[in-house]
Amino acid sequence: MMNLDSTFAALSHETRRAILKELASSGETRLSDLAKPFNMSQTAVSKHVRVLSDAGLLTVERRGRTRHCRLNAEPMKQAADWLTDYETFWTGQFEKLARHLAAKGKK
pTM for the full model? Predict the structure, then answer.
């Protein structure tokens, strides 16, 4: 199992989430193309890509002089599975709150 701390840390930045969204729709993208939509240097985007790669959220493959990035969604699935474990708890808490508020309204 991947480290949830590194997954959540990598997902905590909006640029990194945007990079993953782009890779989810394109499948694979050259790093230079991935950097184009962002108002930052390719070096800055490379640092974000490194964080995502270290967290296992994407893979980078060098082909000649270019680097190609590809999404690896498995760590996100593991994070979602972990969060789902708490969904029952929170659903129950909201249901208790609704019952409490309904009872208060009847008084």
Answer: 0.78
